[in-house]
Automatic annotation (TrEMBL):
It comes from Paraburkholderia bengalensis. Residues 1-22 form the signal peptide. This is DUF1343 domain-containing protein. PANTHER family: HYPOTHETICAL 460 KDA PROTEIN IN FEUA-SIGW INTERGENIC REGION [PRECURSOR], PEPTIDOGLYCAN BETA-N-ACETYLMURAMIDASE NAMZ. Residues 455-654 form the Peptidoglycan beta-N-acetylmuramidase NamZ N-terminal domain. Keywords: Signal. InterPro entries: Beta-lactam-related, Beta-lactam/transpept-like, NamZ, NamZ_C, NamZ_N. Residues 55-388 form the Beta-lactamase-related domain.
Length: 805
């Protein structure tokens, strides 16, 4: 084995030679469908920049990236080197990769599904039917399907795998696996396990009467023309394999990296398969073609249009069989994902399938847009162990950003069997804690205050009760109550739009949904005619510029003008109602994103805000608040036990919501706040930012959060489809001073990039002219903090008058 100095020398040589060895190859192919465009020229250049950056940072030696549609390969990139030590070899399009866990889906899952189609294997049957010894030690009832979905309860790997594994015979290792005990009950939870797929490989061999590798070669790879795919590559294929890491026998090139598969002689159901990007493209297109092969070359005459799988088998791989668990959901073998489209992070994880491998490989297949993406690296060959996660995520985002949004209805059309899972994904969660919100208290009181009334309701998906029923449906079936009209705020009734929303029909109730974020943001004339009361049930964000608060103010004004009561069903302040502060909106600067001169975080519930608005603005509405029960001001949302649903398209998680009041001060500037990424409001960036420099500057002034450099490609909003450099933000203090983090972000960006950062665009979000001007002058952090404290102190007595908890 090389010394550390030798390894570093190789790495330096490799990086210096990057320009010489990195090249990009474009594969001509049939054009993509008009409704599923792939990379345009700017995007192709960005992808090369992404891959080259990952190589320069030492995360991967090189990569082969291939994208295509059901009709063929559309683009291919080959960049960097496949070998850094003991010598340097450039990456090539026909480089053979150790696929690691892609073996599970390409070989094992396909083989199991074929045998199930032929009646030789029943997915619902106990594994012990086909391997009797397996049934010992509490495993008698584990089924084949539970192995495929990682719900068997078996451990991730067999006990004792490690130092002695190379001395164990395959027969002894399989005997050990047959004798292990579950660590969880079947179907209790998803527990990703290599053992599951080793067992499945054994079943394929036992049921088919053929060695596992021979079966896969005959019934999968040969019919598909996958001539470079198989276990234990021959010397010619091993010579163009991307090496992984050295072992006592030398560098593993064409020898399996996975220790379990290695102990089984390189042939196993969990790992051991080798392949190329071109071969994987044939496999992906087969799945997109409903199981039909479309080979070329010598294989065409014998296997052209051979059926590898039935369509119904592919459907079962692509729809959730673990939807009762938290995402990621799994089908048979595959992990499920949202389609590769711009709004993918807002969609339930249905429509596409994917899988990754430990060595740095990944494959996604999208049944909605009928496209696929292959990213192959040997990241473990990098000296520091490498990391392909950033390349995968950025490439996936770049491909997705070029395709417009899709709806759950389009997913259901592409995958008809997904209807149940889509409905389940849309169903509000049930409560499991001490707090009862206004709708639950109203129901417990038998809806007495609404008896005999014709009512309207302002709500969206965040309005639901402790049993997971929408407030719409609860009131629709309430005794002696007639719900006749619905109104929705920004983002619409389903919280899935980031633009103006028109009127619509609620499919469940059949009622018209009148948009309050369309041509007008107020209640139009006559909107409340014929109503005896208007009910308001929305989950607020606890932040001054969140527009549901302005919609509340407009509801107060409209009901006062119509001379009907406004009944507010109270809900928690998700940030905690015991903290308030941050820069306060100047009087006279009210707008749709600032209904009242509040500090950044007001520390009030939606019901308390209603009382403040009604009195302080002299609206004079007949305001009736249904308070919560069991609620304490100090509770953050997670403490309440209430079910959580995204309250806007990019406020999907509680960590994002926690950072939202601070990071959203950058909204409207030339900085991406992570919209269209997996982590909105947790990542910020721009093409012109130096992430490491910004992280170092922020870590130097703040102790209530940690910052690390990150690169990302947003699929929507600012810098859509462009590579951004920036920082990931992790809050380290739950009781930090409101606004301090956000003001520091603005001040640091303004100081580092005064000629680029659009500081002027932060004026409205900051709200306080004094604070904004102080940032512009470069005032010290202590002075900025003191100014915000004074503004919070001025709000304290006003707030105090309306607190109910």
């Amino acid at each position: 084995m090389e010394s550390p100095q030798s390894l570093r020398s190789c790495a330096i040589t490799a990086l210096r030679s990057l320009v010489a060895f990195a090249w990009i190859a474009w594969a001509a192919a049939a054009p993509a469908r008009a409704d599923a465009p792939l990379f345009d020229e700017p995007a192709r250049a960005v992808l090369l920049q992404i891959a080259s950056g990952e190589i320069a940072d030492g995360r991967i030696p090189g990569a082969v990236i291939l994208a295509g549609t059901v009709d063929g390969i559309s683009a291919q990139w080959v960049v960097g080197n496949r070998m850094l030590r003991p010598r340097i070899e450039p990456m090539t399009a026909d480089t053979v990769f150790d696929l690691a866990s892609l073996t599970k889906v390409v070989a094992t899952t396909t083989a199991v599904m074929q045998l199930a189609e032929r009646g030789k294997l029943a997915l619902a049957a106990p594994v012990a039917r086909y391997w009797p010894a397996f049934g010992a030690h509490g495993k008698a009832q584990i089924t084949v399907q539970q192995l495929l979905t990682h719900t068997s309860g078996l451990p991730a790997e067999p006990p004792g795998l490690g130092q002695a594994s190379h001395r164990a015979t395959p027969a002894a290792l399989l005997s050990n696996i047959a004798g292990i005990s579950p660590v969880a009950a079947p179907d209790a939870r998803i527990l990703y396990s290599d053992v599951n797929f080793v067992v499945l490989g054994v079943l394929v061999a036992r049921v088919s009467g053929m060695p596992f590798d021979a079966y896969c070669r005959k019934f999968i790879f040969a019919p598909l023309g996958m001539t470079d795919t198989g276990f234990t590559p021959n010397p010619a294929r091993a010579a163009r394999a991307a090496p992984t890491t050295p072992d006592p026998h030398g560098m593993r090139q064409g020898r399996v990296h996975d220790p379990l598969a290695s102990a089984l002689g390189g042939v196993a159901g969990n790992a051991g398969l080798f392949s190329t990007a071109a071969d994987l493209a044939r496999f992906a297109r087969m799945l997109l073609r409903g199981g039909l092969a479309d080979t070329d070359g010598a294989a065409r005459t014998r296997f052209h249009r051979a059926r590898i799988l039935r369509e119904e088998s592919i459907d079962r791989m692509a729809v959730p069989l673990t939807a009762d668990a938290s995402p990621p959901w799994r089908g048979l073998g595959w992990e499920l994902d949202a389609p590769l489209v711009a709004n993918r992070y807002r969609l339930p994880p249905i429509g596409a399938i994917g899988h990754a491998g430990f060595t740095g490989t990944a494959l996604w297949i999208d049944f909605v847009t009928r496209r696929f993406l292959i990213v192959l690296t040997n990241r473990v060959h990098a000296i520091n162990g490498g990391d392909a996660a950033a390349l995968r995520a950025q490439t996936l985002a770049l491909l997705s950003s070029g395709v417009g949004p899709v709806s759950p209805q389009q997913i259901a059309v592409a995958l008809p069997d997904s209807h149940h899972a889509l409905e389940q994904a849309a169903r509000p969660p049930v409560a499991a804690g001490p707090v009862r919100t206004g709708i639950d208290v109203l129901a417990a009181r038998q809806f007495g205050m609404l008896a005999g009334m014709r009512i309207g309701l302002v709500t969206n998906r965040t309005g639901f009760d402790a049993h997971g029923q929408r407030t719409v449906d609860v009131l629709l079936h309430a005794p002696a109550v007639t719900l006749v009209r619905l109104f929705s705020p920004e983002h619409g009734l389903d919280i899935d739009a980031d633009e103006a929303v028109g009127d619509s029909i609620d499919g469940s109730s059949g009622l018209v949904v009148h948009s309050l974020y369309g041509k007008t943001k107020r209640f139009p004339p006559g909107a409340l005619d014929g109503l005896d009361a208007l009910v308001f049930d929305l989950q607020d964000a606890g932040v001054r510029f969140f527009t549901y608060e302005t919609t509340l103010g407009y509801a107060l004004e409209a009901t006062a003008a119509a001379h009907i009561p406004l009944i507010v069903l109270d809900r928690p302040n998700p940030l905690g109602a015991d903290r308030f502060g941050g820069p306060a909106l100047d009087a006279g600067h009210e707008s749709f994103t600032g209904y009242f001169p509040l500090p950044l975080q007001h520390g009030m519930t939606i019901g308390e805000l209603a009382g403040l608005f009604n009195d302080a603005r002299h609206i004079g509405a007949d305001l009736r608040i249904v308070p919560m029960e069991g609620y304490l001001r100090s509770m953050h949302f997670a403490d309440t036990g209430l079910g959580w649903l995204p309250i806007s398209p990019n406020l999907r998680t509680l960590p994002a919501l926690d950072l939202y009041p601070d990071v959203a001060l950058l909204e409207g500037t030339d900085v991406s706040v992570g919209r269209g990424t997996p982590h909105p409001f947790e990542w910020i960036g721009a093409p012109w930012i130096d992430g490491a420099k910004l992280a170092a500057a922020l870590n130097g002034v703040l102790d209530e959060a940690r910052f690390g450099p990150v690169d990302f490609v947003p699929t929507e909003s600012t810098y859509r489809g462009q590579l951004c450099h920036g920082v990931r933000i992790v809050a380290t203090q739950s009781q930090r001073m409101p606004g301090r983090l956000g003001v520091s972000l603005v001040a640091t960006l303004h100081a580092l990039y005064p000629q680029v950062f659009d500081f002027a665009a932060t004026r409205d979000a900051i709200g306080s002219g004094a604070t904004w001007q102080a940032i512009g002058r470069g005032d010290a952090p202590l002075a900025l903090r003191s100014a915000m404290t004074r503004e919070a102190d001025a709000f304290r007595p006003v707030r105090q008058r309306y607190l109910r908890y």
